[in-house]
Design goal:
Blueprint (H helix, E strand, L loop, with lengths): L6 E4 L4 E4 H9 L3 H12 L13 E7 L5 E6 L4 H10 L4 H4 L4 E7 L2 E9 L5 E4 L5 E4 L5 E3 L4 E7 L2 H10 L5 E5 L6 H10 L4 E5 L4 H12 L3 E4 L10 H23 L11
Parallel strand pairs: 10-11, 10-12, 12-13
Antiparallel strand pairs: 1-2, 3-4, 4-5, 5-6, 6-7, 7-8, 9-11
InterPro entries: DNA_primase_Znf_CHC2
GO molecular function: DNA binding; zinc ion binding
Organism: Tannerella sp. oral taxon BU063 isolate Cell 6/7/9
């Protein structure tokens, strides 16, 4: 076990991975079930079962940036569901198992935000407005680790959820960076698994270009998928704009094909 990298390896069987991979292997469970299981272990709950809708209440804990953690639940409140489905156009039926509701307090006020778990037990946080944050520790999030190559690489979890919503089925190994600052961790993760081919869904900005160059310079064969959404900031913006464009086209088609009423001539 490497406690600095939060990784493990079984030399006898020639396998290894993150704490989530280990939990999935020991408990014989899926990725979402492993997240719930680890969450219960952190908060002193039983690990023999992990109900889907139970809130994990515990003694308030002071977190980074002055936030006092109150609890983590599987159920997203209506305002967060509306944000995901109406503003981000995310398919909740496909995305729900990857998300949590994180409740915290700042200066006596309670907030509820979307939590996306990472490989070290931390969470990426997103509010229904402009708020973005992290519940430490910060780390990457591998998803579908048994999936096929090339690995689909995403800068943030909203892009991954957009990809998930766009596809009938996702059979590829996916990796969410959770920050371009995690490029080094991503490279180590990929090299330890002898992965060489990537499909990068990064942002169309300078940071995205630098990140793409970092993977290419590290020797990976990278397909830059951002060329398919040029003119958009990221994959989610492209996905949302495409939905609106398709809706406008359908509405226009309905107007064009609407049958006209025949003109009746009066008899004299």
């Amino acid at each position: 076990v490497d406690t600095e990298k939060n990784l493990w390896i079984d030399y006898a069987e020639g396998c290894g991975g993150s704490i989530i991979d280990l939990c999935m292997r020991l408990e014989r469970c899926t990725f979402p079930e492993a997240i719930r299981c680890l969450g219960q272990m952190i908060f002193g709950c039983r690990t023999s079962d992990y109900p889907r809708t139970e809130s994990h209440h515990h003694s308030p804990e002071r977190t980074n940036e002055g936030r006092k953690l109150i609890g983590i639940s599987d159920d997203l409140p209506p305002h967060l569901q509306d944000y995901l489905t109406k503003e981000r156009r995310i398919d909740l039926g496909r995305a729900r198992s990857f998300l949590r509701c994180v409740r915290y307090e700042v200066r006596g006020r309670t907030y509820e935000v979307i939590g996306f778990p990472n490989a070290s037990g931390g969470y990426e946080l997103r509010g229904a407005g402009l708020f973005k944050g992290t519940l430490a520790p910060k780390d990457i999030t591998p998803i579908f680790p048994d999936g096929r190559q090339p690995v689909c690489l995403f800068e943030g979890f909203m892009d991954f959820l957009s990809f998930l919503s766009m596809k009938e089925k996702v059979g590829s190994h996916c990796l969410v960076m959770n920050s371009v600052a995690n490029v080094g961790r991503c490279i180590r993760y990929l090299r330890e698994r002898h992965i060489t081919v990537l499909r990068a869904f990064l942002d169309n900005d300078d940071a995205g270009k630098r990140t793409l160059s970092a993977f290419i310079d590290a020797g990976f064969q990278v397909e830059d998928m951002s060329v398919h959404y040029r003119g958009c900031k990221d994959l989610n913006e492209f996905y949302v704009s495409r939905i609106y464009r398709l809706r406008e086209q359908r509405e226009q088609a309905q107007i064009t094909t609407k049958p006209s009423h025949p003109i009746k001539l009066k008899r004299r």
